[in-house]
Amino acid sequence: MDKKIARVLHSLEKRSKYEEKNHKKISHDQRMLAITRDAGIFYNILLKTHKPKKILEIGTSFGYSTLWFANAIIGKNSKIVTIEQNPHKINIAQKNFRKAGVSKMIEIKEGTAKNVLLELKKSIKSNSKNYFDFIFIDADKELYPIYFDICLSMLKKDGIIAADNILYPIRFKKYIKKYLNHIHGIPSVESITVPIGNGQEISFKKNSKN
Predict the structure, then answer these.
(1) What is the DSSP letter of 75?
(2) Which domains does the chain have, with CATH numbers?
(3) Which residue has the higher pLDDT, 42 or 208?
(4) Mind listing the pLDDT tens digit for each residue in 87-121?
(5) What is the largest CA-CA distance in the chain?
(6) Which of these, 68, 60, 64, lies nearest to 43 by C-alpha position?
(7) Where do the coiled-coil regions begin and end (predicted)?
(8) Which phi-psi region, left, alpha or beta, contains residue 197 (left: φ > 0; alpha: ψ -120 to 50)?
């Protein structure tokens, strides 16, 4: 683990524990709402094996998951594009990326996820070399199926789309059920739920035409 990244991750984990104990005192827009540490370790190992050159993340927040991704691909001439609509969170994430020494490999796109995704799709559709190898979805749960469909069109063959909050919190259950039913009906995708953290869905794009 890169020492600078490790220090920032440790600081954010302390913030996460504070939020757990004081969640009623902190407004939803001010909360980190990140993946768990064990999920971070899982994705770090997965990406070290998968060796992606280009990563897309939907839902930056304070940059916790982004830093786990960055640590896995640092020094490999790879890039992360991450989407966030909350200016306060973008400001904090930028500071965290600078402290971790990874600002140059991360591009933050501000705006609503759907709009940014559609713009991205439009900009890269003519060049498959710009497609993503790994995409992580951790934003509006009710829009997961929409995000997935847009992302699938920008994903390289043998690429992975992952999604958080598949098992917890329970309040998202109806949205997640729709998401799982949706992706399980796509012939070009193989998918499995991994019970790590709040539950991760790992979807693999088979090497065949959509």
Answers:
(1) T
(2) 3-205 (3.40.50.150)
(3) 42
(4) 999 999 999 999 999 999 999 999 999 999 999 99
(5) 50
(6) 68
(7) none
(8) left
